[in-house]
Amino acid sequence: MKRKISQEGMVELAFGQLLMHGYHKTNVREVMQAAGLNKGSFANYFPNKEQMAVSALEHFTSRLLAWQQTVDRMDLAPMDKVRHYFAALIEHFDTELHCQGGCLVGNFSSELADTHTGFQTLLDTFLVTLNTQFATWIAEAQQQGDVAAHWDPAMLAELIMMTWEGAVLRMKSTGKIWPLQVFRDTFLQSLTTTTESP
User: Fold this and answer.
1) Residue 129 and residue 133: Cα distance in Å, rounded?
2) Measured on CA atoms in the order 78, 82, 83, 84, is the torsion positive or negative?
3) Domains and CATH numbers, the chain
4) CA terminus-to-terminus distance, the chain
5) CA 79, CA 193: separation in Å to the nearest integer?
6) Do 194 and 149 touch, CB atoms closer than 8 A?
7) Can you give the pTM of this predicted structure?
8) What is the pLDDT of residues 160-197, one digit of tens each?
């Protein structure tokens, strides 16, 4: 009896392979072997390797955006929403990925974005969407006096994401979680205004 795997299941499997091996080192035959299917079955799921990668990227980014919207509905202060969003990702990197693989958005940005305009557009569109919500939280925090008013919310949102991706890269180079903890405990914390006692 032939094994059956859903389209969603195949996308999830492809995502895992692409995350751990990168686009160029991910082999279609190995993806299908991991699924327990022969290479000829690949066309039942994707027209080509590029579309497989696009589907995996869309799968990943849709989960991140859904998580961000879940956080937005929580009864938290604006900057606590920012911290909570990243805290869950740090926990995932630490306990489930064991500091391996990194972020598919960051990986594809370095591997594909500057040579493939299609991926560049997908990546930029996702980051603009994600940062728009961060900018909204930052603006709300400014109204409450929790973030300095001189910051441009959109530019600070960009800075947060750029710093995050750098921390993820450092995590990969060390194989340890501490770069993400520094991002959380030092960088994010530094964005919040505090009143020091005289």
Assistant:
1) 7
2) positive
3) 56-190 (1.10.357.10)
4) 76
5) 11
6) no
7) 0.92
8) 999 999 999 999 999 999 999 999 999 999 999 764 43
